[in-house]
Write a structure and sequence with these properties.
Elements lengths: L7 E6 L6 H14 L4 E5 L5 H12 L4 H25 L3 E5 L2 H11 L4 H11 L12 E6 L2 H11 L10 H17 L4 E5 L4 H14 L5
Parallel strand pairs: 1-3, 1-4, 2-3, 4-5
Helix pairs in contact: 2-3, 3-5, 4-7
The chain binds adenosine-5'-diphosphate (ADP) and thymidine-5'-diphosphate.
């Protein structure tokens, strides 16, 4: 599960307002307290170019194919410039969203063709040895859209995705469920409707069970 350098690639997934960022920050702190080198990053984003693409994605109206091309372009730059070098240094890379989000938002939410998404995934994440760069572990913070919307209403102004109706997030959630069913070892579902402390306890339990935390 680890890279040859001891690097580890962990991703955080779920609909907007599920609690990803909160737990990513806490896990980074816990890992650093144990002496691990940690690279915190996010998608789309993580490099100057990818952050510019992120701003376009969140602000400019575009069709689903353009969205998919933009997120995979950002991902390519992010992998080359940040994720692969950090893994090569032996870091634990904690990434707020990755390709599962594309299958959930563009595939599930927008109804875009998953066959094309899979083609883009294979182009962008090819590891040069016939394989695919994928996360070692993905934490899926699963929560009904109504609960996430209530949390977000209290927390921040909505961007282009967060302004979508609840039915969009039902489709996104179903997209995550399909990805989790197809990769049950890599993607761990957490019940994110629980109070913050209970979700955190689940995060700790999974990370200890997988050897991410001592
Ligand atoms: N389990 C929880 N119970 C109640 N509120 C939560 C919980 N998890 C996160 N929150 C709150 O919900 C809001 C969105 O959380 P955040 O971590 O930013 O979600 P995401 O990164 O998934 O969009 C924040 O105000 C956060 O404090
Ligand atoms: C990575 C990714 C994100 N997105 C969307 C989902 C989110 O609504 C948005 C930004 O993600 P996020 O970082 O979760 O937003 P915030 O900073 O508001 O918590 O981009 C996609 O549509 N496809 C993707 O492949």
């Amino acid at each position: 599960m680890t890279t040859s350098t001891g690097g580890l690639f962990l991703t955080f997934e779920g609909i907007d307002g599920a609690g990803k960022s909160t737990h990513l920050t806490a896990l980074a702190q816990a890992l650093r307290a144990q002496g691990r080198a940690v690279q915190v990053t996010r998608e789309p984003g993580g490099t100057p170019l990818a952050e510019r693409l992120r701003a376009c994605l969140l602000e400019e109206p575009m069709d689903a194919l353009t969205e998919a091309l933009v997120v995979f372009a950002a991902r390519r730059d992010h992998l080359r410039c940040v994720i692969e070098p950090a893994l090569a240094r032996g870091c634990v890379v904690l990434c707020d969203r990755f390709t599962d989000a594309t299958f959930a938002y563009q595939g599930g939410g927008r109804g875009f063709d998953p066959v094309i998404l899979r083609t883009l995934e294979h182009w962008v994440q090819a590891d040069g040895a016939g394989g695919l760069r994928e996360p070692d572990l993905t934490l899926w913070f699963d929560v009904p859209p109504a609960v996430a919307a209530a949390r977000l209403a209290a927390a921040r102004a909505p961007d282009r995705f967060e302004a979508e109706p609840q039915v969009f997030f039902e489709r996104v959630r179903a997209g995550y469920a399909a990805r989790a069913a197809a990769a049950p070892r890599r993607i761990v579902r957490l019940d994110a409707t629980q109070p913050l402390e209970a979700v955190w306890a689940e995060v700790l339990a999974v990370c200890r069970a997988r050897g991410v935390l001592a």
